Structures are given as C-alpha cells and as structure tokens.
C-alpha cells in the first residue's frame, strides 16, 4: 500500500510517460487521490509548481493559476 506522499508523487511525476499512459483509467487516478482525500490535494498544491518548472507559456501559467484556485476551492468545500 502506498502512502499520501507516494500518491502525490505519482500524480505529479510521470517521468517520460504521460499520466494517462501510466494510469489509463480515470478510476486509477481516483484511487491515488482517495488514498487520503484531505492530504493528497494539499501535497499536490504544495508541489505542483516544481513539476511544472519548464513550462512558461501564458497558457501554462493560466493553467497553473486555475489549478491552484480549484484546489483551494476543493479544500474549502472539504471543510
């Protein structure tokens, strides 16, 4: 069984393969999320910018801002 940190790492670090190749079914991604639905999103929010360091186009920056906002909204709804 994997822990919260491993789940967040697997969701963020896909190496040479895309996340969809490593976890082809949506259910596989949900299983990683539900390892701990309170902590995994917060670990991702804390580290997702590090995984996006080589992306700097305006669209990528907009996507990162949207991701941050959606994670914050999800955390608020969870409480």
What's the helix-strand series?
Answer: HHHHH
Structural class: mainly alpha
What's the structural domain tally?
A: 1
Number of strands: 0
Q: What does the average pLDDT come to? A: 85
Low-confidence stretches: none
Radius of gyration: 13 Å
Please report the distance between the alpha carbons of the first and last residues.
26 Å
Biggest sheet character: none
Q: Per DSSP, what share of the residues sits in E-state strands of 2 or more residues?
A: under 5%
Shape: globular
Portion of residues within helices = 55-70%
Q: What this model shows, in words?
A:
There is one protein chain. It contains five helices and no strands. The model has no long low-confidence stretch (mean pLDDT 85). The chain is mostly helical. The protein has helices at 4-12, 19-22, 26-33, 40-51, 58-78. The protein has one domain (4-78). Helix 4 (40-51) runs antiparallel to helix 5 (58-78). The chain is 68% helix and 0% strand.
Overview features:
single chain, mainly alpha
Topology:
Layout: H1 4-12, H2 19-22, H3 26-33, H4 40-51, H5 58-78
Helix pairs in contact: 1-4, 4-5
Compact overview of the structure:
The protein has 79 residues and is mainly α.
């Amino acid at each position: 069984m994997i822990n919260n940190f491993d789940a967040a790492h697997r969701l963020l670090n896909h190496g040479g393969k895309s996340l969809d190749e490593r976890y082809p079914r949506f259910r596989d991604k949900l299983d990683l999320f539900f390892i701990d639905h309170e902590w995994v999103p917060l670990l991702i929010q804390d580290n997702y910018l590090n995984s996006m360091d080589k992306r700097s186009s305006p669209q990528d920056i907009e996507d990162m801002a949207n991701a941050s906002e959606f994670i914050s909204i999800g955390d608020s709804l969870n409480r």
